[in-house]
Amino acid sequence: MMTSAKQINRFFLLATGPLLGLLIALLIGGAGGIDWSRSPESFAPETDIPQMAGNIGQQLDNAESAAKLTAASIKETTDLYQMTTTTISAIVTSAQQTAKQPETIYNKRITKKLGTPYQTIQSDKIRIELYKVNPGTYKGYAMKVKLKSPDAMKMTLGKDKLGGAETTLRAVERHGAVAGINAGGFADSGGKRYPLSTTMLNGKYLTGFQPTYKDLFFVGMSKSGKLIGGKFKKQSDLDKLDPSFGASFVPILLKNGVKTAIPKKWQTSPLRAPRTVIGNYKDDQLLVLVIDGRDENGSSGATLTELQSKLFNMGVQNAYNLDGGGSSSLVVNGRVVNKPSDGQLRPVPTHFLFFK
């Protein structure tokens, strides 16, 4: 059937070929371009018509072959594109995995110094690992925290008002947090408990900025979810760090991986005590230490020098001593993990809370 159709098409081309040629000539050159004085013998003889038709047929065959070749080329190009896309996707995946290797290696190195976590909490927003700390001279807990989202950590006020105070357990329960620790120091006045010095909540200063004096420092989180802290003489210096929240206490233990001088007063008063410390690693993971002690008379718990060395040896870069003694508290999954030295949790004005 295909052969017959081809023969019929060629027949019509043979029949109409001369007429088409004449029309084309007239269009291009105009009727005046024909030399009518030429003798009939000077035009192509009738015997040349089959040859001309054959040439046209050959050209059609060539065009068909070229079309088939083009289609094959397009298919090859499409296949090559798909292969290239698949290869690029594999390269991107491999690159992403390779990029994560240094982070994974670093995390294994710092985790090795903590031991094996006895509890892990994992979500899209946060990862928390709990460890026991017992070097022989004191006992306590370490909580390593990776914030996957800036809103996975917040600071709250006791009873949500300035001058209010509540236990860390109560704060965790009220705000639906998965974990919490006590935060900055405080001063009592008129039956109320107020945060000490510069305190920020939701990016605002609660009682205004107070320049650092004596050994006080400010510690908190930036709006991007990074631990920030230090001594600030001017508000503009603190504002440059884009703080979201934070509280104040004494003293700083580590700054940029270097041990800082611990004021003599804080080396001996008290010598040992329950402690709460917060710090960060190079990869911005947080480390919280909560150390137990029987009381605040200096006979049990840890010294700040001991904790400073412990944190330094674990690779912590910046570390800040939070309120301790009876204020030290660690709550995870609705349970008080440490043993408060007062025999029960102390109501305090500020808490650092962690959310799933």
Automatic annotation (TrEMBL):
Residues 175-355 form the Phosphodiester glycosidase domain. Keywords: Glycosidase, Hydrolase. Pfam families: NAGPA. It comes from the Bacteria. The keyword Hydrolase applies. Transmembrane segments: none annotated. GO terms for molecular function: hydrolase activity, acting on glycosyl bonds. Coiled coil: none annotated. PANTHER family: N-ACETYLGLUCOSAMINE-1-PHOSPHODIESTER ALPHA-N-ACETYLGLUCOSAMINIDASE (PTHR40446). This is Phosphodiester glycosidase family protein. It comes from Paenibacillus haidiansis. The lineage of its organism: Bacteria, Bacillati, Bacillota, Bacilli, Bacillales.
